[in-house]
Amino acid sequence: MADRSPVEPSAAVWQRVDVAHSLGYGHIRGGADGFRLQASEIVHDGDLAYSVAFAIETDAEWATAAVYVEATDSAGSRKLDLTRSPGGAWHSQDHDLSDLQGCVDVDVAATPVTNTLPIRRLGLEVGQAADLRVAWIDVPSLEVRLSRQRYERLEPADGRERYVYSDDVYGPHLLTVDRNGVVIDYEGLAHRVWHG
Q: Distance between alpha carbon 25 and the CA centroid of its chain, in Å?
């Protein structure tokens, strides 16, 4: 059952720890009818350099309704526009998304703001876990694929909520989050350096 506790307008800046230089910004706004997440990130690591910006619309239960992503690198700019019907079908003009049937969440491989979606939607109690099928969007290629993910809620520590997140490619990572479900530390990927 979705976490229905109030969500204060929340903004954050993260620094990636897995690349030489990066900065990402994200914020969450919402109300009774749903939520809007917006984020952007700039990354530079050796020959890799790109920027990405995205927006996600959800319903009041934190289920994804629409996703817009734009990425720019030395090869040019790419755009991705996806929608999800209440029945669980995903739609795009340019992609076959039949593998995503039944996926509720989207994971954009940029700032950790998209981890908030399943954390809030599932409303797990300490000791509970859930296995998910997620629409995963690679950055900067914007390729879309099915990702099998798992969230397990741990006992809080040092005043922070904790989860173990794992997926079918990168394995497990410890996440610490604030009361809004926004990531503070994503083990091996990013650390929050500001929030407001």
A: 12
